[in-house]
Amino acid sequence: MKAVTITEKIKFILEPKLLGINARLFVTREDGITIYDSVQNNTTTSVAALVSGVWQASEALMNLVHDQNEVMDFRLGFDTSSQGIYLFPFELSGKRYFLGAIYNNCLNPGQLKRQISLIKVEMETIFINDPLPQKIIMSSRQGYLFQDISDVEIDRLFSLGGI
To answer: What sign does the CA torsion over 150, 153, 158, 159 have?
Structure first.
């Protein structure tokens, strides 16, 4: 059975919701890499990088007045009554991601923000119940590929003349 990637899981969660939400939905990693974007075009990479940067800048400003440990409780909105951007941080397998919506000509931004908030909760719930597999890291070496090789032979191997 093939393992499902985080991108496939997020796409499975978000795709059905696109019909009921009149906004561009996206998920980015904390480092600005796109995980999902409902609008795949030449702005996809820029959106992810800018979202990461604006969140980190906002977080740095908030550190001046607020405890860092509660940053996951925040959301970021930059909007007017009908257009804007809305971001939520969330955590999957110990890593931070951002769920966001970019909207224009929205009749009820409050409803849209509520829908985004519910999607965030649903994603966290799904990933808590079915977490991402952890990478296996070998902690100790079991042996050597070549046990009886000298430093001189290694030097000859990597010299310009070869063996």
So the answer is: positive
